[in-house]
Amino acid sequence: MAPTPAAVTQSSASHAPMVSGGTLTVANLRAFEQGCKRYFSTKAIAAPDQVRRIIYNFEDETVSSWIFNIEDELMDLSFLDFMARLRDKWLSNTWFVKYGKILMTPQSDTPFTQWVNTLRNANKILRSKEDLYMDDKCLRHHIRVLLSDDLGVEYGTINGDAPGVLDTIADLDKWIARIGHMDYNLCHYKSSFKSNAGNNNSSSTNANTNTTNNATSSSKQHHNRKFAYKLDLSERALLDANDGCHCCCCLWIGPNHDCKYKTTPLPFGEVPKITEDYVKAERQKRNTQKTSDTKQKLTNAKQKMTTIAAVFDYSSDDASDEASVEANDADLYADEYMLPNHIFWNANLSAPSVSPLR
User: Fold this and answer.
1) The 3-state secondary structure of the chain, one letter per residue
2) Calpha distance 147→288 (Å, rounded)
3) Which residues are CB-contacts of 128 (< 8 A; sequence separation ≥ 6)?
4) Rounded distance, CA 77 to CA 75, Å?
5) CA–CA gap between residue 36 and residue 24 (Å, rounded)
6) pLDDT at 163
7) Whole-prediction pTM
8) Phi, psi values for residue 23, rounded to 5°
9) What's the pLDDT at 321?
10) What is the pLDDT of residues 301-318, one digit of tens each?
């Protein structure tokens, strides 16, 4: 017959918890520790007096006999050290292995909030094991490493370069709450995407049953690709300021932009990180393209020009020729082209049609 675990009772926060007769376990020692801390806080009991106030609250004869034999030694301990002595004495030598394994379990497909609460509870239970317990700083890095692949990518994208946006959140609980919100959005995004993909596959099957094999292979590719990350507030602001699309992340899209990623996610490899430097580079690229297009248009226009007249300088060293030609009776012709003085222009001519002279 399995031994009966001890029960922990506490009538109110102003009274110390009591532990009934029975086997001490990780769970009831944890409940006793929590009840004691509540009691110490309510009654404002100083640290040196804490163990004295609760040391005789164990009703089991075996435990109370052990306490009676070394009570002076135990009373000199801090409360946390007293709880560590209880666990070392009354729990099995391997009691911490189970919780150490929990502490090392990666998130995988478990919802972040559920997973991190389990991990933190295991870490609290291991407080008496200095080689396993982690303070807030170590726990933060530990959680970061064990995040699922998709959430890890999302974290890195939003966080940015070190020290990133998320790294600057000093409070551990606020940091965890922020990641929990990211995980919720990511799960909702995946669920919506799978639903849309299922509808598309269903309609494709009904439309043409002869393409079943192609649709199946296309569906597999569709589901296996990485998801695009969700835009953070700074990225959305940059897109809005530069007439950008929140679906495909294109800038200066104009009023007639028809984005093909409104209902299907943008593949991860095609997603740029929207930063000030990225916008600056895209603007420079856009201006360079505009300049190139303008030059090409001018070149094309010049090639289409029709020369309707040319003006040349008249230069002659022969005074007799110059005197023999009357300016009003004949045209003057240059004896050589003065190329720097050539003038080209575009003109629209409007004149009545006439018959050629005979």
Assistant:
1) CCCCECCEECCCCCCCCEECCCECCHHHHHHHHHHHHHHHHHHCCCHHHHHHHHCCCECCHHHHHHHHHCHHHHHCCCHHHHHHHHHHHHCCCCHHHHHHHHHCCCCCCCCHHHHHHHHHHHHHHHHHCCCCCCCHHHHHHHHHHCCCHHHHHHHHHHHCCCCCCCCCCCCHHHHHHHHHHHHHHHHHHHHHHHHHHHHHHHHHHHHCHHHHHHHHHHHHHHHHCCCCCCCCHHHHHHHHHCCCCCCCCCCCCCCCCCCCCCCCCCCHHHCCCCCHHHHHHHHHHHHHHHHHHHHHHHHHHHHCCCCCCCCCCCCCCCHHHHHHCCCCCCCCCCCCCCHHHCCCCCCCCCCCCCCCCC
2) 43
3) 80, 83, 84, 87, 88
4) 5
5) 16
6) 72
7) 0.49
8) -80, 135
9) 52
10) 666 655 555 555 445 455
**What is the spatial distance between Cα 226 and Cα 117, in angstroms, rounded to a whole number?**
27
CA atoms within 13 A on the CB side of 11: 3
Identify the CA nearest to 176 among candidates 142, 149, 206: 142
Angle in degrees, CA 36, 42, 47, rounded to 5: 60
Backbone angles phi, psi at 18, to 5 degrees: -115, 145
Express each pLDDT in 117-162 by its tens digit.
999 989 988 887 888 889 999 999 999 999 998 888 888 888 877 6
Which segment of 6-20, 147-161, 236-250, 260-274 scores lowest on mean pLDDT?
260-274
Distance CA 83, CA 68 (A): 16
Identify which of 245, 223, 225, 220 has the alpha carbon closest to the alpha carbon of residue 235: 245
Classify strands 18-19 and 8-9 as parallel, antiparallel or unpaired: antiparallel
Mean pLDDT of the chain: 77
For residue 329, what pLDDT band results from cuts at 50, 70 and 90? very low
Distance between CA atoms of 283 and 252, rounded to whole angstroms? 9
- Within 10 A of 128 (CB to CB), how many other CB atoms are there? 18
